[in-house]
C-alpha cells in the first residue's frame, strides 16, 4: 500500500511519543496514535485524500489533524513537529527506537540519569544504574540491554519505494541549492535492490565545503552524524542514514562506478585492470607504472578501457554481466517508455479508491494505449470481490467507455482467485466474456509445496488464464513467499503460454530479478504491472520495470510492451492453443 501512508503514520506516532514524554494528557496522545493506525491501514493513498479534500473522512481526523497532515504532505515538513522536537535533545527521541522502552520509561531515564542518546543508555544499563529507577528493576534492565544490542545489530533496511523518492528529492535539492557540477545517487539503490541500507550520494564541485554545508542544511536532515569536505553522514526521517561523498571532477566516473557496486562486480573489474598492469580504485583507473590516468572521468570510460561495454547498474552483481559485456552480448533492458499499458489494476467496484472511469483516464493521461481493469473475484470477500453478474455490469460500462476513449482501450479483466482446492472463481462461460484473465493466490498460503504447486499448475492450464499475478506471494520484510515449486510453475507457464507477473508494488516486487531471469530464460513472457488501487499508484510501474531489469528482461519479453493490436492477437492465440 501507499508508502506515503506509512510516512504520515510514522510522523503521527513520533508526535504521540514526544507528547507522551512531555507528559501530555492521554487522550491527546491517543488521538495521534489512533489516527496513525487508521492511516497506516487505509486502502487509499492519503495523498489522494488530501488532494481531494477528503482527509476528514478518515475516522479520528478532525480539523487540527487535517491541517497538520495537509501541511506535511504539501511541504514535506510540519512546523508543529519541528517545534516539538526542539524541546528535547535529539538523542532522547532516539531512545524510543529501543523496543520495550516506551515514552514513560524513556522520560524517567532521561530525567533521573541525564541519559540522552543510545550510547549513554547502553553505559547506564551496563553499570546497573537503570534498575533502581521507579518501575524498572533488574529484569527490565536486562531486557532493555538485550533489545539495545539487537537494535545495534539490525541494519534497518528501507524499501526501494521509500528510498528512491528520498534519494531523488535529495539529488534535486542538491542540484538546485549546492554548487555541484555533478550529483547522483549510487549504491544498491542505483542497482535497484529491493531494500536499501544506507543511502549513498555522490557529488563533485569546486567548493566541497560549500557543498557539505548545503547538504547538512537540507530540510529533510534530522540529525548530522558527521561532516567534512569529503564526506558527510546525516539521518533523514525514519532514521534513514544518508552518506554524501564529495569527489574531484576527475574522479567522478571512478567514484560512481566504485560506490554503485556490487562488491562482487567491482572485484572482477579490479582483476581485469590488474591483469593489464593497471590499478582501479574509487579515484580512477591508472597505469601502475607511470601513474597516468587512463579514464576520462566518466563512468562509461572505465568499462570501455577494460574492454567492456558499459553495464547498466541493475546487472552489476557478477552474474554473467561481465562476460556478456566483453562480447557485446548484454541484453537491451526494458525501459519504462516501452510499457504500453498496465494489466493489473483495481477500482472502487472492489477495494480500489477510484472509479473505473478515473483509472482509465489516468492511464490514458500517462500515455498508455490500454489498461486492464482487474478487480477481485467473489472469493476474496475482504475486497468485496465481484460475482459474475457484477462483472457483466462492468462489461457494459467498459464497452460504453471504450466508445468515448478510443483509440485508448479498457480491457475488462479479472484478478481471479485460485481457490484452495485449485478450482477457479469463474466458469469458462463467464471467462469467455472477458478480454483479459489473470489469476492469483490470496488464500491458503500455508499449504505445503506439493499442494500449492498443483493448485497453481491447474490454474495455468486453463486456456483463458493469460497471467499469473505475484507468483510467489511474498510481502517484503513482512511475509515469506509461500512454498511452491517455482521451476515447475515456470515450465508449465512456458508450455501453456502463460505470462508471469513482475508486480511493481514496492512491498511485493514479485517476481524478483532472480526469478524473472529464470522465467525469461525458459521462454516465459513477463507482465510488468502495478496492482494499482488508486490512480497515483500507476506511478509504481517504475519499480516493476527496475526489478525486471535486474532480471535481464528485454522489451520483447514483456507482454504489456506489445502494442494493443499485438496484445489482443497474442491473448486470442493463447486462448485457442492446446496446453
Ligand atoms: Zn492480488
Ligand atoms: Zn491486485
Structure described in brief:
This protein has 579 residues and is α/β, with parallel strands linked by helices. Helix content is 45%, strand content 12%. Bound molecules: zinc ion (2 copies).
Written overview of the protein:
With 579 residues, the protein is of the alpha/beta class. It folds into 4 domains: 3-153, DNA polymerase beta, N-terminal domain-like (DNA polymerase, domain 1), CATH 1.10.150; 158-247, Beta Polymerase, domain 2 (2-Layer Sandwich), CATH 3.30.460.10; 252-326, Beta Polymerase, domain 3 (2-Layer Sandwich); 336-576, TIM Barrel, CATH 3.20.20.140. Helix content is 45%, strand content 12%. α22 packs across α23 (541-550). It starts with a helix and ends with a helix. The mean pLDDT is 92. The chain binds zinc ion (2 copies). Residues 344, 346, 415, 531 line the site of one zinc ion.
Task: Tag the structure with descriptive keywords.
single chain, 579 residues, alpha/beta, DNA polymerase, domain 1, Beta Polymerase, domain 2, Beta Polymerase, domain 3, 4 domains, seven-stranded parallel beta sheet, five-stranded mixed beta sheet, 24 helices, 12% strand, globular, binds zinc ion
Amino acid at each position: 500500500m501507499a508508502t506515503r501512508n506509512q510516512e504520515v503514520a510514522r510522523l503521527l506516532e513520533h508526535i504521540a511519543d514526544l507528547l507522551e514524554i512531555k507528559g501530555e494528557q492521554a487522550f491527546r496522545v491517543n488521538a495521534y496514535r489512533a489516527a496513525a493506525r487508521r492511516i497506516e491501514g487505509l486502502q487509499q493513498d492519503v495523498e489522494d485524500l488530501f488532494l481531494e479534500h477528503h482527509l476528514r473522512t478518515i475516522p479520528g481526523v478532525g480539523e487540527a489533524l487535517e491541517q497538520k497532515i495537509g501541511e506535511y504532505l504539501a511541504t514535506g515538513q510540519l512546523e508543529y513537529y519541528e517545534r516539538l522536537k526542539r524541546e528535547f535533545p535529539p538523542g532522547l527521541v532516539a531512545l524510543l527506537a529501543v523496543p520495550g522502552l516506551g515514552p514513560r520509561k524513556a522520560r524517567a531515564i532521561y530525567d533521573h540519569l541525564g541519559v540522552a542518546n543510545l550510547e549513554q543508555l547502553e553505559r547506564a544499563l551496563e553499570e546497573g544504574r537503570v534498575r533502581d529507577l521507579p518501575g524498572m528493576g533488574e529484569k527490565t534492565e536486562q531486557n532493555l540491554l538485550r533489545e539495545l544490542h539487537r537494535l545495534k545489530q539490525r541494519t534497518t533496511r528501507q524499501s526501494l519505494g521509500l528510498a528512491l523518492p528520498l534519494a531523488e528529492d535529495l539529488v534535486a535539492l542538491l542540484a538546485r541549492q549546492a554548487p555541484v557540477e555533478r550529483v547522483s545517487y549510487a549504491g544498491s539503490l542505483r542497482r535497484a535492490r529491493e531494500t536499501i541500507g544506507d543511502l549513498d550520494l555522490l557529488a563533485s564541485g569546486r567548493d566541497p565545503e560549500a557543498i557539505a554545508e548545503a547538504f547538512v542544511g537540507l530540510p529533510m536532515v534530522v540529525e548530522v552524524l558527521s561532516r567534512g569536505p569529503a564526506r558527510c553522514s546525516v539521518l533523514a526521517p525514519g532514521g534513514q542514514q544518508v552518506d554524501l561523498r564529495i569527489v574531484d571532477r576527475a574522479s567522478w566516473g571512478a567514484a560512481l562506478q566504485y560506490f554503485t557496486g556490487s562488491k562482487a562486480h567491482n572485484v572482477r573489474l579490479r582483476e581485469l585492470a590488474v591483469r593489464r598492469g593497471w590499478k582501479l580504485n574509487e579515484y580512477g583507473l591508472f597505469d601502475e607504472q607511470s601513474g597516468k590516468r587512463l579514464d576520462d572521468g566518466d563512468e562509461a570510460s572505465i568499462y570501455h578501457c577494460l574492454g567492456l561495454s558499459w553495464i547498466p547498474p541493475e546487472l552489476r552483481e557478477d552474474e554473467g554481466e561481465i562476460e556478456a559485456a566483453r562480447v557485446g552480448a548484454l541484453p537491451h533492458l526494458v525501459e519504462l517508455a516501452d510499457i504500453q499499458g498496465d494489466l493489473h489494476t483495481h477500482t472502487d467496484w472492489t477495494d480500489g479508491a477510484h472509479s473505473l472511469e478515473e483509472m482509465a483516464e489516468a492511464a490514458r493521461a500517462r500515455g498508455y494505449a490500454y489498461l486492464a481493469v482487474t478487480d477481485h473475484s467473489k472469493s476474496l470477500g475482504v475486497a468485496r470481490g465481484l460475482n459474475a453478474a457484477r462483472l457483466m455490469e462492468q462489461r457494459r460500462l467498459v464497452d460504453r467507455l471504450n466508445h468515448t476513449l478510443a483509440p485508448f482501450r479498457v480491457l475488462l479483466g479479472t484478478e481471479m482467485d485460485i481457490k484452495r482446492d485449485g478450482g477457479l472463481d469463474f466458469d469458462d462461460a463467464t471467462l469467455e466474456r472477458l478480454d483479459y484473465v489473470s489469476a492469483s493466490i490470496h488464500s491458503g498460503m500455508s499449504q505445503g509445496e506439493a499442494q500449492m504447486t498443483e493448485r497453481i499448475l491447474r490454474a495455468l492450464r486453463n486456456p483463458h488464464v493469460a497471467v499469473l499475478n505475484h507468483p510467489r506471494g511474498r510481502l517484503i520484510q513482512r511475509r515469506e513467499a509461500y512454498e511452491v515449486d517455482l521451476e515447475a510453475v515456470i515450465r508449465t507457464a512456458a508450455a501453456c503460454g502463460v505470462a508471469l507477473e513482475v508486480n511493481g508494488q514496492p512491498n511485493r516486487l514479485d517476481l524478483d530479478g532472480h526469478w524473472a531471469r529464470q522465467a525469461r530464460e525458459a521462454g516465459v513472457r513477463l507482465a510488468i504491472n502495478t496492482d494499482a488501487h488508486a490512480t497515483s499508484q500507476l506511478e509504481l510501474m517504475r519499480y516493476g520495470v527496475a526489478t525486471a531489469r535486474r532480471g535481464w528482461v528485454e522489451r520483447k519479453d514483456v507482454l504489456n510492451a506489445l502494442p494493443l493490436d499485438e496484445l489482443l492477437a497474442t491473448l486470442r492465440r493463447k486462448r485457442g492453443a492446446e496446453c
